[in-house]
TrEMBL record:
Database matches in InterPro entries: TNFR/NGFR_Cys_rich_reg
Domain (TNFR-Cys) ranges: 48-90
Keywords: Disulfide bond, Membrane, Receptor, Transmembrane, Transmembrane helix
Annotated TM spans: 182-201
Entries under SUPFAM superfamilies matching the protein: TNF receptor-like (SSF57586)
Signal peptide: none
Domain of life (superkingdom): Eukaryota
Protein name: Tumor necrosis factor receptor superfamily member 14
């Protein structure tokens, strides 16, 4: 309980007083709030702030301020817990950067940009800055998670043939050369000749195996 005997003596309130209409009442200290204003005979009634609320200065308020909620759902976490005499301070979660500050704490954060396939990370995000992404140059590729683009594989330099050309997000696809490709045109005609020769040889053997017919021979 606080009482200033001459609270009603002047409408010009002192530093430790607050105005109620045309009168002045003693303030409540930090961490407390007003439950009943003073009268000519009774000083201001005060109570301590409830959990989750605070009052950071001498005051004549009838309620305490609500503590700031450092909500993980919006990319924030507690940097300093709330007390009856001071508000909570928040900071950004990992993977986020702060976009708005107040009294030394972050009050709004945004998730770092994720670079797309075909881009590389030119500057990784920090607590104060977003990630910066740049496009890969021709002949290079990236899946968006690296800090530089890689050159496409040159299949011919490895003794391979290119099956699929590279893009800005994928490497070239290489494969083995087909060694039988050049032999096919010559193998087929040769195989046909072998089959025909086998058929002719089989027919000749059948003819030679037949007995001679001498029943119709007459000697004159």
């Amino acid at each position: 309980m606080y009482f200033i005997g001459n609270a009603f003596a002047s409408a010009n309130c002192h530093q430790a007083e607050y105005r109620v209409g045309e009168d002045c009442c003693p303030t409540c200290p930090a961490g407390w709030y007003v439950t009943k204003h003073c009268t000519e005979y009774v000083s201001t009634s005060c109570k301590p702030c409830k959990e989750g609320t605070y009052q950071d200065d001498d005051n004549g308020r009838e309620r305490c301020y609500s503590c700031t909620d450092c909500n993980a759902g919006v990319g924030l976490k507690v940097k300093k817990v709330c007390t009856p005499t001071s508000d909570a301070l928040c900071e950004n979660l990992d993977g986020y950067f702060c976009i708005d500050y107040n009294r030394g704490g972050c009050i709004a954060a945004q998730r770092h940009t994720v670079c797309s396939p075909g881009q590389y990370i030119s500057q990784r995000g920090t607590a104060d800055k977003d990630t910066e992404c740049l496009q890969c140059a021709n002949g290079t590729f990236s899946d968006g998670t690296s800090s530089s683009c890689k050159p496409h594989t040159i299949c011919e330099s490895m003794g391979l043939k290119q099956i699929q050309p590279g893009s800005d997000s994928t490497d070239s696809e290489c494969g083995e050369h087909d060694v039988n490709t050049g032999l096919v045109p010559g193998i087929i005609p040769g195989l046909i000749l072998v089959i025909i020769s086998a058929i002719i040889l089989t027919q000749r053997k059948k003819i030679l195996a037949q007995p001679l017919n001498t029943a119709a021979i007459n000697i004159c």
